[in-house]
Amino acid sequence: MRDAGLLFPGAARGDGAGDLTDDGAVLRALLRAEVAWVRAQAATGLVPGVTADAVAEAAGRLAGGPQGADALAQRVAVAAAAGGNPVIPLLAALREAVPEHASTVHAGLTSQDVLDTALVLVLRDAAASATADLGRACAAAARLARTHRDAPALGRTLAQAAVPTTLGARFAGWLAGLHAARVFLADVGGVLPLAYGGAAGELSGVARLTDDPFALVDAWGAELGLPVPPGPWHTTRTPLTRAAAALAETCAALGHVAGDVLQGTRPGVDELREPAAPGRGASSAMPHKRNPVLSVLLRRSAVAAPHLAATVQTAAGLAADERPDGAWHAEWPALRDLARHAVVAARLGAELLEGLEVDADAAGRTLRAALPDAHGVGRAPAVVDRVLRATGFAAPGTAATYAATGTAATGAATGTAAPGAAETRTEDA
């Protein structure tokens, strides 16, 4: 049965877009990798173009429609135990669906080439989705920081009253973390590479097909839009450890936001309120409650993500010989779950920040109650200005551009301010 996200609130969207990280997505990525390999053979003159078309049509029939993909995924999952990975039974099904071209399908490849490449395709799509939603979150955080640049608030350290700051400075801190995570994830997602190498990373199977195996590999990468690394990475798992780190950082940055929102929504604080929606935050036993469920789900991902990333890092350290024995297998669910956390958290985080309600008066009352003799807010407003410049939000209108295209001002990637920029207040975009 398809994983519908029953125990992962937020994963099921209900809008027909589907889940970028469910078994159906993985299955389609596996088939896409196999079809692209045959198309690469056609592009290099090894097989006729009609062969590639026939294989593509057969793959489409296998995964045609949600029920077809679900049924195929179920069969492949059951059969995968025999060979230790899902490529073997899926390959058998594809060859059975196009028997006249069975010898061309997967020729020269190994299971790891296809499975790693399929995971890269899933991770690339997940990274693109999360990056786009992080752009929305950054734009919303920038608006909050600018709007509340000068609004006094209680600064807390070690859970206790510290010194006055501003709500804008707190929101600018959110922006800095979200922007850094977005840049990291976009950079990593954009260079996730093709996996190739054949049985033991020596390309002997590909070499039996052509005198120029690297030309065929390059054609495969071109078909999938993936960069081709200089050599195989069957046991050099750097692409995946970096992807795991970027996905986990996304969840951490959003978890930071969630922690502050959960604090701000507590009774007696009442400085923040999550956006309302029908049924959101309802309690099964206490109808008077409006639970901050978006922040709760963001914190869930912040709790889970580091352990999933640690699994990927551990597996990389245990990779041996020319294909890891067990360490490779441990990566698959960890990477898939990590990608799901990042995708869902980024979407929910953008929704949270775009609709967050801020009560600056309540923040002022909290400050006066805790520090009645305090005066001023230090250089908190200047901090806001500096962060807005460094992240590309200093100029009016940049919020919409950033969220849509990722355009940022000088210094945005490094977190440094543009040279010579003055620390002046900017108007709301």
Automatic annotation (TrEMBL):
Transcription recorded as keyword: no
Family indicated by similarity: Belongs to the class-II fumarase/aspartase family.
GO MF, any single term: lyase activity
Span list, region Disordered: 409-429
Domain Fumarate lyase N-terminal, chain residue ranges per copy: 33-301
The name this protein goes by in its record: 3-carboxy-cis,cis-muconate cycloisomerase
UniProt biased composition (Low complexity): 409-422
